[in-house]
Amino acid sequence: MAIRKSELYSSLWASCDELRGGMDASQYKDYVLVLLFIKYISDKFAGQPYAPIAVPKGASFADLVALKGRTDIGDQINKKIIAPLKQENGLADLPDFNDATKLGSGKEMVDRLTNLIAIFERPELNFSKNRAEGDDILGDAYEYLMRHFATESGKSKGQFYTPAEVSRVIAQLLGIRKAGTSAATTVYDPTCGSGSLLLKVVDEARTEVTLYGQEKDAATSGLARMNMILHDNATATVLQGNTLADPKFTEGPGVLKTFDYVVANPPFSDKRWGTGLDAKHDPFGRFSTYGVPPAKQGDYAYLLHIVRSLKSTGRGACILPHGVLFRGNAEATIRAELVRRGLIEAIIGLPANLFYGTGIPACILVLDKAGAKSERDIFMIDASRGFIKEGPKNRLRERDLHQIVDVFARRVDVPRYARKVTFKEISGNDFNLNLPRYIDSQTPEDVQDIAGHLQGGIPQADIDALQPYWALCPTLRQTLFQASRPGYLDLAVAPNEIKATIHAHPEFIAFTGRMQAHFQAWLAQQSAGLKALKAGVHPKDFIATLADGLLAHYRDQPLVDPYAIYQHLMDYWAATLQDDVYVIAAEGWKAEVRQVVEVKKGKDGQAGKSVDKGWVSDLVPKALIVAHYFAKEQAAVDGLAVALEAASAALADLEEEHSGEDAVFSGYDKINKAAVEDRVKEIGREADADAAEELTVLKRWLALAADEAKGKKKLKAAEVALDTAAKAMYPKLSTAEVQSLVVDEKWLAALRAAIHGEMERVSQRLTQRVKELAERYETPLPQLAERAAGLEARVKDHLRKMGFAWPEVEK
């Protein structure tokens, strides 16, 4: 059975538990990722001649497993596994597996490394068999780990990773797919970190391209090299060194190698960028045309390196702190010259707190040498408000990055979001590119109407602002409001009837009906295609086509945000659909059942007792089978559960009623059948006439307890019978039945519910706004003053009666 993506992620992340405590995330990531790397290359390339990466004899994952439990395991890993891999493949700065300061000493190190290796031994982590063709399931797992490591590493140590969503935006802004690429197409990242940004460009290109990267940090450059291999880009060239002081990609003395595409996420405002470099006499002439950046602000140093590294037809994109758009002095001079020469095609403002090394807001500068011309306009997007908070960081949602790319591709003006800014306007602002100068992204203030507060009535201007609703439901406005005085209206229904009035209005009913029909039309278009999915489908291509189609289907629909609809699908993709499509890609429409066994941890962290947690089916969950084939049986189980709950409640009520001081159950340490029966026998032996009432209560308890016990037994038997029947149904399912269950009753049903919720929000927004306006102007100021005066008089009267009197009260 193919491994689900979510299970792969959780399995790998669980491996981190074996290392937590001895070191921080910026350190233990190296050990986990190296083991992931060794497992992958062993599964894919061990024993293969001419493989893109060599797995020396004796240095495979199987040889690593053979070292488990050895007292010198750390030293043996270094000598027998790490050293040969480094030598054969030119890998550098792999972690020391015999470092007692990080891994512990003696038995602690042995247990920690043994347990860590054991995690990668699991049969389902056989990477030679669990990879959908054309889809980097393992590469995605690597990205998942990197993101979590970056999150845990803290502010000062997370710069090795560019968030995947930002990398995807940059890759798409370059337009590399439309341009057409080949192996001769070159892509370069001068500050490549772990290589994630380069790899997103490859994904976008969808063809083989040639990758180059340079990274200053030795350990991170090693991660980048491994990342390239894990993503099937073993021929990528990643070199270690300081890009500004010692660029590794040159074409001779004083000549930088140039590339078709350059992308970068350099360290923000690098204060040591000039170390080892005489910037005024740069041998590569990077600063001779535009000027030398400030000694303590390296942002433009990296940007000018990118400019110099682009071919005359090249395109680039660079992530920089927002300050590069408006800071003065030397940076202002460089910025003005870049704008005059027309090198900046677009600027995209990003939300704050996206990046792991800093919380400051950043922007993307899109460079275009091919289209560079004097006095070029610049397209600006302020996407700073589009994000979701996830843990300590903000994160771009799928809808946010799609909207950025869509608006950029169409070059359309969007109020409070995007516009083309002329060179004349920019030069008139002294080449200050600060986005708020050109785009007011603030939500318009909800203006308070003074006359409305003084005299009552809802301002007509506020009602007119809801015109998109009235355009669809013109008579709904007359139903909700009535004339008050010139320019003002009164609510025509009771405040608590607003929602019901909207929902019951014929025009709103007609609108919701049209929207439901619109969604049903999309469902009808997709159902057959979804059922036609076959083994070998490319999951990423599949979801891109499906999601883009849904977005286009809703793009021109009134009152509905098409990107919100799109996000619902992408959320479902991440939660469920992705795993299902990967199963289909690997195995087709197989409704298989598997047992879930949980291994409890024993002493000293060793594996303990295995616990059978029952069976599951990933593609066709038990709930689907039960709902479709065993609805009556489930109803019977539900009825037994209700009856049991009633019996348990009656028993609990009886105990509570008679558990007070000197009550029937007051002396019981524990109320159970044995204790109650003993007391009944005791009353019978003593023939205590005064205990008749107690005896009645006790017999009632026994009867209810018997009912509860019978209820539990019946419920358990019914649940087991239903479970057995449902499990037995799976082998009988035809492919067509599996497809119908999964597509119609699982996927599309979930999407229908999500999008129906979006339509509910349409009515909620109108209801809330009408109610808000009605409450705001319900009581004019004179009435409020009169009410306040009356309350004040009552308070003073009460104070006098209580004997309090002082000048303030008498006044």
Can you put this structure into words, describing what you see?
- With 811 residues, this protein is α/β, with parallel strands linked by helices.
- Among the domains are: 1-153, N6 adenine-specific DNA methyltransferase, N-terminal domain (Ferritin), CATH 1.20.1260; 628-732.
- A hairpin with a 2-residue loop joins strand 9 (388-390) and strand 10 (393-395).
- Helix 21 runs antiparallel to helix 28 and helix 23 runs antiparallel to helix 28 (735-776).
In short:
The protein has 811 residues and is α/β, with parallel strands linked by helices.
List keywords for this structure.
16 strands; Ferritin; 30 helices; globular; 811 residues; 9-stranded mixed β-sheet; alpha/beta; 3-stranded antiparallel β-sheet; single chain
Mean pLDDT over the residues: 88
Low-confidence stretches: none
CATH class identity of the domain at 1-153: Mainly Alpha
Number of helices: 30
The CATH superfamily of the domain at 1-153 is identified as N6 adenine-specific DNA methyltransferase, N-terminal domain
**Broad structural category:** alpha/beta
Biggest β-sheet: strands ordered side by side in the sheet: 3-2-1-4-5-7-6-8-11
First-last Cα distance: 86 Å
Q: Would you report the number of β strands? A: 16
Question: What value does the Rg take, in angstroms?
Answer: 35 Å
What is the overall shape?
Answer: globular
Known CATH architecture of the domain at 1-153: Up-down Bundle
Strand content: 5-15%
CATH topology name of the domain at 1-153, in short, is Ferritin
| Biggest sheet statistics | 9 strands, mixed
Residues in helices, as a percent range:
40-55%
